[in-house]
Specification:
The chain is 6% helix and 38% strand. It is mainly beta. Strand 7 and strand 8 form a beta hairpin.
């Protein structure tokens, strides 16, 4: 009897912001056929929207944990002839399978093997919880601390960890690959390549068939979190920011990442054709962290990098090395420009979106060239109050659209106690004008403990949704997603 009680207590999640209220683990795998739809799903939306989330399957081993350390749970909404179906399924990583068999957590703090149970010493802690990638007819769940996991695109069943038929040498792979809409090429990278703190970064070019056409490594100025990067038509750019890892601190059981504002921020620029042998380093005028990137493009000899930047680290997840009482600062849309014709290592910085934001997106057909339209998650107190601070920072209440052609901002306000997540742009047709498309976003209806998926006219956000796909339950807050058109999906089957 006492043993039974002990086991039951072991399945209680902690009374902590990461595991409470709307942020609480959902843990439900299943499907709902024919979701309720308010309005009408546009006929152009025939296909599947996939997105990934961090949904803890078990209470953390050491009593507390960060939001980022949840298990990968992929959500799939399939659109067919005006109908929508939902499927949710955990990624069967090695970590997930070991803990499912043990019926408890076995792995400890985020990316810290020294805090794991001895039962899983040497095992892979990859949670595959950050993003999803569609390329060469395959669907993958991604997390930058491990290799991709291939999923069945119709059922979300896990097909297994992938090294792309032996072509991927690194033990890690980015959650933010970039795709060339002209060539079909995927450009990707890995950092902390051997699974431990390192200043090495490995760069990959993958053709439309999934063949690695180039693999090469280079050294960064120091070991940094490299969550995202930027690619233009002719260049690749990495921001090396002072979110740093010291393996000795990790061994002592401290956080994997710390914000170190005493270090400089660098930009490494690599010509796509010449590769890392021609890398050039530039020094930013301030310590800054790139949160996520919009796009990179070229203006003559000037390489333009458009991204969201904060002058603090991600302090809701990782500590400040020098100031334990520091507060996380909001990101703004910044334009960083380097002149490749100049011998100076100067970076010119301007704020080109005068509004806070995160989770940026553009029309993917215009990636790597100059874009006009920018969408992002944000807050706008003029439209509605901020929501209480959550486990990954302040939740969004709005989606924003910045039209650089007119300089105007437009907003969709989701309503009281509602929180949109990362938007995703789908063009109305292959030859539609830039921005002429639909914006998809999951919206947390916090007061109802439920989730919707909203479909907005991307150029007219303030008009509100053309359709609201209503889930009868809550799915866990997510990170990044992608869209796969039905015709594309059919060609892969």
């Amino acid at each position: 009897m006492n043993e039974h009680v002990r086991l039951a207590e072991g399945l209680q999640f902690p009374d902590d912001i990461v595991f409470q209220g709307y942020a609480a683990p959902v843990r439900i795998e299943g499907s709902v056929h024919d979701l309720e739809v308010v309005g009408a799903i546009p006929p152009e939306l025939e296909g599947v929207y996939y997105r990934n989330s961090a949904d803890h399957a078990y209470p953390p081993l050491h009593g507390r944990d960060i939001f980022l350390n949840g298990d990968g749970m992929v959500h799939m909404v399939r659109f067919e002839r005006g109908h929508a179906d939902l499927t949710t399924r955990y990624v069967r990583t090695r970590k997930f399978e070991l803990e499912r068999a043990a019926r408890r957590a076995l792995f400890g703090a985020y990316r810290n093997p020294f805090t794991d149970s001895s039962e899983v010493a040497g095992e892979d802690a990859n949670t595959a919880n950050t993003s999803v990638m569609w390329h060469h007819g395959k669907l993958y769940a991604l997390k930058e601390s491990g290799r991709p996991y291939e999923l069945d695109p119709l059922t979300l069943e896990t097909r297994g960890e992938s090294n792309f038929a032996g072509q991927l040498k690194s033990r890690t792979f980015t959650a933010h690959p970039k795709f060339d809409s002209l060539t079909g090429e995927c450009i990707a990278f890995a950092y902390n390549c051997e699974g431990v703190a390192s200043d090495e970064i490995e760069l990959y070019r993958v053709d439309r068939e999934g063949c690695f056409t180039r693999t090469e490594r280079f050294k960064a100025p120091y070991c940094s979190m490299v969550h995202d990067f930027l690619v233009s038509r002719n260049y690749i750019a990495f921001v090396i920011c002072p979110m740093v890892c010291d393996w000795e601190r990790v061994q002592r059981g401290e956080s994997y990442w710390h914000w170190d504002s005493h270090r400089k921020t660098y930009i490494g620029v690599i010509p796509r054709e010449r590769g890392v042998s021609a890398i050039r380093w530039f020094t930013a005028p301030k310590p800054a962290m790139q949160t996520h990137s919009f796009n990179a493009w070229e203006d003559g000899s000037r390489l333009v990098l458009d991204h969201f930047v904060t002058e603090s680290g991600w302090l809701s997840q990782f500590p400040d090395l020098h100031n334990p009482n520091a507060h996380e600062l909001p990101p703004f849309g910044e334009r960083w420009i380097v002149d490749l014709a100049s011998e100076a290592d100067r970076v010119e910085i301007t704020r080109f979106i005068e509004h806070i934001g995160e989770m940026p997106v553009i029309d993917p057909r215009f990636a790597m060239s100059r874009a006009r339209h920018y969408w992002f998650g944000t807050n706008n107190p003029k439209l509605g109050p901020m929501l209480p601070f959550g486990p990954k920072g302040p939740p969004f209440t709005c989606l924003g659209h910045f039209d650089e052609g007119t300089g105007k901002l437009d907003f969709y306000y989701a309503g009281p106690d509602s929180s949109p997540e990362e938007p995703y742009f789908v063009p109305k047709s292959a030859d539609a004008k830039e921005g002429d498309g639909w914006l998809l976003s999951m919206v947390g209806r916090r007061a109802e403990n439920r989730t919707d998926l909203v479909i907005l006219d991307a150029l007219h956000l303030s008009r509100g949704p053309v359709a609201v796909v209503k889930f009868p339950c809550r799915v866990h807050e997510g990170f990044h997603g992608t869209w796969v058109a039905q015709k594309v999906l059919e060609r892969s089957l």
